[in-house]
């Protein structure tokens, strides 16, 4: 696992076509803005974990 420190406004690129940018909300929380092609599935971690539990059972 790669761990990077990023500040609001900074971003990382995954390959040539996925951009993950750190943004700050009005209440101070940090959020991720993901720009990826439509064919790339993006799933929140807790949803993915639940899907894995269902798939196993």
TrEMBL record:
Keywords: Bacterial flagellum biogenesis, Cytoplasm, Repressor, RNA-binding, Translation regulation
Domain of life (superkingdom): Bacteria
Known function: A translational regulator that binds mRNA to regulate translation initiation and/or mRNA stability. Usually binds in the 5'-UTR at or near the Shine-Dalgarno sequence preventing ribosome-binding, thus repressing translation. Its main target seems to be the major flagellin gene, while its function is anatagonized by FliW.
An annotated Gene Ontology molecular function: mRNA 5'-UTR binding
Oligomer and partners: Homodimer; the beta-strands of each monomer intercalate to form a hydrophobic core, while the alpha-helices form wings that extend away from the core.
Keyword Repressor: yes
Any one GO biological process: regulation of bacterial-type flagellum assembly
The protein's name: Translational regulator CsrA
Location in or out of the cell: Cytoplasm
InterPro entries from the UniProt entry: CsrA, CsrA_sf
Family: Belongs to the CsrA/RsmA family.
Any one GO cellular component localisation term in the record: cytosol
Main location: cytoplasm
GN (gene name): csrA
Classification via Pfam families: CsrA
């Amino acid at each position: 696992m790669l761990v990077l420190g990023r500040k609001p406004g900074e971003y990382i690129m995954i390959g040539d076509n996925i951009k993950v940018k750190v943004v700050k909300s009005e209440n101070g929380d940090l959020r991720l803005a993901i720009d990826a092609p439509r064919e790339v599935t993006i799933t929140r971690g807790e949803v993915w974990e639940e899907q894995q539990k269902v798939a196993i059972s």
